[in-house]
Amino acid sequence: MSQSQAKEPKYDLTKISARVDRVKVSGLLRTHNDYVMRAADGLFKAANFQELMMEAMSARSYLHELGIFKDVSVHIDISRGADATPGQGYEVTLSGKEYSRVMGSAGTEIGQNEGSLRTELTIPNLFGRGESISLQGTYSSTRANDLQLKFWKPFFHTRFRENRPEISLSIFRQTDRFDISSFQTTNLGYVADFSVHTMLGLDLTHSLQYENSIRELNLLNNKSAPFGIREHCGPKLASLLRYSVVYDNRDGTVFPTRGILLKSTNEYCGLGGNVAYVSSTVHGEVNVPLIPGIVAQFCGRVGIMKETKNTTQLPISNLFYCGGPLTLRGFKFGGAGPVMEGTPIGAQTFWCTGAHIWAPLPFAGVFKSFANNFRLHFFYNFGNSNNFSTENMRSAFGMGLALKLAERARIELNYCIPVKRQNTDKISNGFQFGIGYEFV
Amino acid sequence: MQSQLLNQMHTADKLSEEPWPEDATLYQPFDAEQILLPENASCLAVKAYLKMCGLPFNIRCCGNAENMSPGGRMTKLPFLRAGAFIFAEFEPIVNFIEQKDMAIGSWQDPDEKADMRTYVSLAENIFTMAELYISFKNERVYKEVTAPRNGIVFPWPLSQIQNYTKRRNALRLLKVYQWNDLDIKHVIEKVSKCCETLEYKLKESPTTPFFYGDQPCELDAIAFGHLFSILTTTLPNMALAHTVQKYKHLVDFCVFIDDKYFQSKQIKISH
């Protein structure tokens, strides 16, 4: 149909006037009626048939976003009956299929040097207005088991629909291993999150979080750890506010071809508890299409952490560890920073940048859409810790293959050649494997 | 196995070569507000031993001393940092100093040494267990002294969790040594038996103030550490102190050691 339309606009749908008489949303079993009410808002405003079609589509995607339906289909029919608008009255039926009461999933994840099993159990649409609870567990081969219980409630059905407000509360237990510095932290606590979208000139996504957690630091190698790290051992109570804001107009999350991403995360820790610091991280990404299929990408990240007047000791686990496949390729994770007795101890400031040329696989056409999950890239990374000048900076270049994973994550296998390094750095010359959401 | 032995020998060689480090530091919890009875006893024993050896050391008080410790059999405290080496608890620290040939008691012949070691291990086990028992099993002592002191370095909800974990670990340790279902009477009995044995040993050389001959040894340090701590710590339940007080020779011994080695203790500790 679209083809014939493009060739000769035989039927100009904008000229066919239309009026929606009735909108019906069917398939609501557990969901309250008022939760889907706003799906009809746009439809009633449609004046011609093309608008009606567009609005029906957006109503469908709106219903999807509400997080109650597995699948939604749209039926448009002429309205009948006594009340029908003669000649141009239509009836729109949005029939959805609700999620089942309990949803489960299991999968495997591969991290830096461990394999892990992830299971998730979700109860969607708990009270009929999109409230959901999920329990997520990750069991890894290194016995660093993570657990998260999350409750969230979207407010897309209110008059702030465009702002997409959402609140969530999670209880979590999370273990982070810093193998290179031979310690690990176990965090146990809760996070309350409020996120909202604003459209004042720029489309920004804000998220304000309050976290209260017990962070316990343990040594992984009790004999050889430097004393400076040993001094951080033991549990601490952190109470912090985190504000992050994201601007994203890219055309894709994993392999974008154009657009800008800017993300800033700011933490103020020290509202009670005995951990105090302020930290700020900014991540940026610019994508420029060169010739069809070839994209130039420039990334950068800067982090600063400062003491507050309550600080007795900056928490070593929140310092910045520069190096590794997500920041400076060609270096081991955390291997491009200050050291104590040969062991990396994290930096108070760091910066790193990366320049990429992304290209599709050769003969990509042969494999059709499957090849869309792969890209080749050439990269050059620069960066440094505790120093904002370009003197003594670290750099590496190389090329590699990247794989898209579920529209969110990226897996990279790169051949890296470190160019500039410092004597204490831990490099990884040759093949390096990386998995993550946010790369430089 | 062989490589492990070689390794040990190698470490021993390295240890004996190096002189006593200037900056040797003993890490312990805060004396006034935080430290618990068993930990205090163990710290005092180590301090007494180091002083008897005439080795200089600094004392550093840390709220997280127990977490920093490389671990041990009982209290994990105190731990000694000497150069690159870290040792926790009385026995490993004593072994370390002996490897350096700076230890007291090198004049003892092997038989006497083995005999003395038996007393050391008896005193350490019985007293530590009794101290743990009174600190964590006695409800009043736990509520009024142990819990508030243990939790003092942590902010509120964390202090409760830490108290719970600490008590659970202590009770587990008591269970391992089969002290968990004793009642206080049995504990007192065990302590008085141990005191009796020690007093008997002390009386074997009535002319000298020490357990063995006219020089101090490990036993003097460990006995002093525990007895003095028990005698001087005020608890809602003073059963242990009352038991020890019955042994006049041991009390005199404590006073003597305190005078001889800890004259300036009050001044030194207040830093």
UniProtKB/TrEMBL annotation, chain A:
GO biological process, alphabetically ordered: mitochondrial respiratory chain complex assembly; protein insertion into mitochondrial outer membrane
Main location: mitochondrion
Species the sequence originates in: Drosophila willistoni (Fruit fly)
Family statement: Belongs to the SAM50/omp85 family.
Gene3D superfamilies in the cross-refs: membrane protein fhac: a member of the omp85/tpsb transporter family
Compartments it resides in: Mitochondrion outer membrane
PROSITE patterns: POTRA
Superkingdom, natural source: Eukaryota
Protein name listed in UniProt: Uncharacterized protein, isoform A
Cellular component annotations (GO), alphabetically ordered: mitochondrial outer membrane
Topology term for the membrane: Multi-pass membrane protein
TrEMBL record, chain B:
Protein origin, superkingdom: Eukaryota
Cellular component aspect of the GO annotation: axon cytoplasm; SAM complex
An annotated GO BP: axonal transport of mitochondrion
Record domain Mitochondrial outer membrane transport complex Sam37/metaxin N-terminal: where: 43-166
Domain Metaxin glutathione S-transferase, residue spans: 192-254
UniProt cross-references to InterPro entries, sorted A to Z: Metaxin_GST, Mito_Protein_Transport_Metaxin, Sam37/metaxin_N
Keywords carried by this UniProt record: Membrane, Mitochondrion, Mitochondrion outer membrane, Protein transport, Transport
Subcellular location: Mitochondrion outer membrane
Pfam families, sorted: GST_C_6, Tom37
Protein name as catalogued: Metaxin-2
